């Protein structure tokens, strides 16, 4: 990994097809900055994404990348990191991708604590399929599939993560560029599963969860001298606070031991001999 | 004196039937005898009828037959379930002191052994089955010392006291028979032959490690779980890792991720899991990711009969998934081939950068067979990784702007592959239709180019690889029997039965479903063509008819039970007779 990597080195020459003003631009820039700031380079970085607007990120970034199927990005990232622990693995998804179709994988990725960063572009709406309710859409929110307003409470992804044993939980806002990049960087630096829910507004289909709304309402825990992200109880109170939405690193387990370390997985598994491994006849002799 | 023996132990699930059977099978194998085992089991943890059957001979055995010589019956149902297979010389070992009154057919010899109380004498009622094994050794004139090694292997971890108690228990069983019954008409000779005893799932796991598989993700499902059980605790010693995923979708996606990271990677499941994996199978094919997906078939559809045999997934593996994507479908026909075809599946996957279905079935998975260890000669294993570029060779695949052409359109359809970490090899891959750089495109020209390119890999493989068949019987016979999967063993033995009756048959056992050998010449040269498979509709027969443009006869079994040699011989005779009637 070279020290002279700039964040633009992670940019591909493909122009994004996101709507003008989409929060995903800022979300992606923060991811690239975080990777560059932590000394990674594109040849040692693997980006995984699922389907939807968020899923396009692999095309606009320059690195090793896989754009997979809907909701399954986390298992792919898990496989990549276990197979080659030398790689920096970043998984990107949307609220539908991560908390609806992929909710089961989210719970298990969190508890496995594989050392990778999961950035969810949460715009509380399905954008690419043109405006249906998402699992994080607010109650009473009117969409094409909830014309009378959603009758279900939204998923609280941070609470889900905390309950599943997350070792790092953060929330950021794509338009607060420097702070967002800083939060993602902390997730990259975290030894374990770094989960960042990013408010990444959809300017086309969501006129409730707008830039103005987040700008006016988000409370940064970094501004509170008494907030201690290593205190799980404090994190729980913030995450389940029904009246406020917080950003910043809400919880970090300082004693986090990532999956690969816990399982003694160290070597790059791409290196294999050109025949059966040495001592393989032992495998046959076992059947005597 | 017969030296062949068909032995079984049966009782309720939870009675230790499986481990007891395995101990005896290993003892026979270690004594240089050939062994072939089969299992009857139900989909429940405790209770219900379950049995472990062993056929042993000094000659190679590779099928089950309709005959049972020595039965250890722990329940009345064990006797009832096997009535058809018992004969006048059969012997049943049962515990005459137990609460159930054994109803033994008049012509059959019952040997009452107080299994439980003798086990208690040896140190614990839990060893009742070992007492039965000792009794069986005496009846079969099989030296009990051979059992000792097996008991050591099974109980060694639990300490020498447990091993010694079991040895004592076996001797109490032997002595009881010796003192209370006369000599029996069996003599199981031992030989100096050196065999290993393993089942198909184990052979697949062993093949995977031999081939350099370093990542396995799976979700438990009968009858594929044993692949995972085998790998856990072993693959780590060779630098690999096993992860139990939260579901099948996760399992295949994890395996895909590991493959993209450059590891040889595999998942194994059964039919229901294959259904769930279909979407990611398509992603693997279009993103050109080398992946081995093992389908150990069981009775379907839906949950079907989880513990029963069937070969019903051929169409799923051949056609499953939306859109048109190239794949290889390789189906081992014997337990030994489970090893070799697994190695080959990994090589095919990487050489052609596509997913390979390795299709096995329950009959291969759960039955054990003896082999010369050199059938699994590790020195013969070759690992071919295909067109992997390194830091030097990557340059020739960069476009004018220095971008790696991961999906370059090549003459043979195979693109270069850069593993993460390779300088300048960074690229994306996607399930979307893509250009040479791996980026989404809807260009009509590029769409056609990429579809053709992926398809061309199959043509290249047809030129470079040998997709052949195994042949048995009389090459000049007018009757041709074609088979795939686990039916081979029973067919080979059926050949002998038919030959004794003057019926010459040529058997082709085909381990490649796609690409597969062209059998036109073989079919045209035959008078009668019969395709044998364990399904209702004849999925493989359909392929043969399609390829050769002629009608074939079909022998289909879908009871959930594998073919037996004598049964197959009858079926083939029946098919020939029916054919004669029609033409006459």
TL;DR of this structure?
The complex is a heterodimer of chains A (288) and B (584). Chain A is α/β, with parallel strands linked by helices and 288 residues long. Chain A has a single domain, classed as Thiamin diphosphate (ThDP)-binding fold, Pyr/PP domains (Rossmann fold), CATH 3.40.50.970.
Largest sheet of chain A: 8 strands, mixed
Quick one: overall form of chain B?
Answer: globular
Kindly report the CATH topology of the largest domain in chain B: Rossmann fold
Rounded radius of gyration of chain A (Å): 20 Å
Helix content class of chain A:
25-40%
Query: How many separate domains make up the residues of chain B?
Result: 4
Structural class by sheet pairing and helices of chain A: alpha/beta
The N- and C-terminal alpha carbons of chain A lie at a distance of: 48 Å
Q: What's the assembly state of these chains?
A: heterodimer
**How many beta-strand elements of chain B?**
21
Classified in CATH, the superfamily of the largest domain in chain B is: Thiamin diphosphate (ThDP)-binding fold, Pyr/PP domains
Proportion of strand residues of chain A: 15-25%
CATH architecture of chain A: 3-Layer(aba) Sandwich
List the helices and strands and how they pair.
The complex is a heterodimer of chains A (288) and B (584).
Chain A: H1 23-37, E1 45-49, H2 57-60, E2 64-67, H3 73-83, E3 88-94, H4 95-101, H5 103-112, E4 117-122, H6 157-163, E5 168-173, H7 177-189, E6 194-199, H8 211-217, E7 218-220, H9 232-239, E8 245-252, H10 259-262, H11 281-285
Parallel strand pairs in A: 1-2, 1-3, 3-4, 4-6, 5-6, 7-8
Antiparallel strand pairs in A: 5-8
Chain B: E1 5-12, H1 17-30, E2 34-40, E3 49-57, E4 68-73, H2 76-81, E5 86-94, E6 109-112, H3 115-122, H4 128-139, H5 145-155, H6 160-180, E7 196-199, H7 200-210, E8 213-218, H8 225-231, E9 241-244, H9 248-260, E10 264-269, H10 271-286, E11 291-297, H11 314-319, E12 328-330, H12 335-352, E13 355-361, H13 362-366, E14 368-371, E15 428-430, H14 444-464, E16 470-473, E17 479-483, H15 488-500, E18 505-509, E19 512-514, H16 520-525, E20 528-533, H17 539-548, E21 553-556, H18 565-583
Parallel strand pairs in B: 1-4, 4-5, 5-6, 8-9, 8-10, 10-11, 11-13, 12-13, 17-18, 17-20, 20-21
Antiparallel strand pairs in B: 1-3, 2-3, 7-14, 12-19, 16-18
